[in-house]
């Protein structure tokens, strides 16, 4: 029950057990082409969007967005926590002007304040984080984009903790760049950054962009296009085995169906939150409409976060530390993404109850499991 990497299906791991598969082999090219198609399904876009699979992960996908910028461009970062702030840290490394709006821990920046800001100044690019992994807060992407799209050129959404578990409709919502990583709700190993890019954004992929060499998507574009046509291409060696595993994970997602997958995540997340509240604890996300399908932050009153993490492992469950600086040591995070089931929710709540009781936290033992159980039935 970590926030990523998550449990990986054996079929997915086995798919990577290939000896000596060259990146120019027909086998690899076919799998790469299928994975690009799989991304279109995952992000709900059509052929007007260009998919990219690049080495790295969420951060390489984020940094590759500099490919759409030129010197002096103005950017607005909408940050709800640690991963929103990561955008600011990335852009500070480049010759662009960065403004930001920040929410308090557990909240998200209101649509009105984003709208006010984009009306004051013309921004070339704006970034949102769909689910802020540091707090478990989900941003209302569809509603926000609708309000601000007329004022900015390129809308970017970090879906690292949402894609594969939350409703994501990049095209319908008019998002220009939606990105994620392989190791979270997709259920593949870490190692890949995944993006889909609108025609509108692709027009901004210029020769004089400010990206470095490796993450300049202009260098990767011919590889993506060629692979889609079934022809091998090289810019830099791709993590061949990880792509085989990604492709298998994407196939399993298509078999389950994205809507069913979102519903399953919703159910498990709901059971976990009901269990947390049932035992008498608070959730980090302040507004219920911002509860996410993938991460739940749990506030602690007495127990130390570090003790909870090391003790709950002894009960057979691994959860994650809280990482938001203003709540340091005061909360833990439960990840519920990938192939999580209602049984995982019950086991987690029950292990957490025993652990917290032992650590002297004032909770209603048994009430969490009872609440989660009745939620599920
Ligand atoms: C919302 C979000 N964005 C970006 C990242 C960075 O991804 P990576 O660690 O794969 O570079 C993470 C990682 O957890 C994340 O949760």
UniProtKB/TrEMBL annotation:
Aminotransferase class V domain location: 18-326
Domain of life the protein comes from: Archaea
TM region positions: none
Family under the similarity heading: Belongs to the class-V pyridoxal-phosphate-dependent aminotransferase family.
Family annotation (SUPFAM superfamilies): PLP-dependent transferases (SSF53383)
Keywords: Aminotransferase, Pyridoxal phosphate, Transferase
UniProt name for this protein: Aminotransferase class V-fold PLP-dependent enzyme
One example of a Gene Ontology biological process annotation: glycine biosynthetic process, by transamination of glyoxylate
Gene Ontology molecular function: alanine-glyoxylate transaminase activity; L-serine-pyruvate transaminase activity
Organism: Stygiolobus azoricus
Reported cofactor(s): pyridoxal 5'-phosphate
């Amino acid at each position: 029950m970590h926030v990523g990497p998550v449990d990986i299906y054996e079929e997915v791991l086995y798919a990577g057990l290939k000896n000596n598969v060259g990146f120019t082999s027909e086998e690899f090219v076919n799998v790469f082409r299928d994975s690009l198609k799989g991304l279109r399904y995952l992000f709900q876009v059509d052929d007007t969007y260009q998919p990219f699979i690049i080495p790295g992960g969420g951060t390489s996908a984020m940094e590759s967005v500099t490919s759409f910028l030129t010197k002096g461009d103005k950017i607005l970062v909408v940050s709800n926590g640690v991963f929103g702030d990561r955008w600011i840290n990335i852009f500070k490394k480049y010759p662009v002007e960065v403004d930001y709006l920040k929410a308090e821990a557990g909240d998200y920046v209101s649509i009105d304040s984003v709208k006010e800001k984009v009306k004051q100044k013309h921004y070339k690019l704006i970034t949102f984080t769909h689910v802020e992994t540091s707090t478990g807060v989900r941003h209302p992407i569809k509603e926000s984009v609708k309000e601000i799209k007329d004022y900015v050129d390129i809308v970017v959404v970090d879906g690292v903790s949402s894609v594969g578990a939350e409703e994501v409709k990049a095209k319908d919502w008019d998002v220009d760049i939606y990105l994620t990583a392989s190791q979270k709700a997709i259920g593949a190993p870490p190692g890949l950054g995944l993006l889909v890019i609108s025609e509108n954004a692709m027009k901004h992929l210029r020769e004089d962009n400010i990206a470095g060499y490796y993450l300049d998507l202009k260098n990767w574009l011919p590889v993506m296009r060629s692979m889609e046509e079934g022809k091998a291409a090289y810019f830099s060696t791709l993590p061949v085995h990880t792509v085989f595993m990604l492709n298998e994970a994407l196939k399993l997602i298509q078999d389950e169906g994205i809507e069913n997958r979102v519903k399953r995540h919703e159910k498990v997340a709901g059971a976990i939150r009901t269990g947390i509240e049932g035992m008498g604890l608070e959730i980090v996300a302040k507004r219920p409409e911002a509860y996410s399908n993938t991460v739940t932050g749990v506030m602690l009153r007495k127990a130390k976060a570090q003790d909870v993490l090391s003790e709950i492992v002894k009960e057979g469950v691994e959860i994650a530390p809280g990482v938001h600086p203003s709540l340091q040591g005061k909360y833990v995070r439960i990840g519920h993404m990938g192939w999580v089931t209602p049984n995982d929710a019950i086991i987690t709540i029950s292990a957490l109850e025993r652990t917290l009781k032992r650590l002297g936290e004032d909770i209603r033992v048994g009430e969490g499991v009872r609440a989660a159980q009745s939620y599920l039935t």
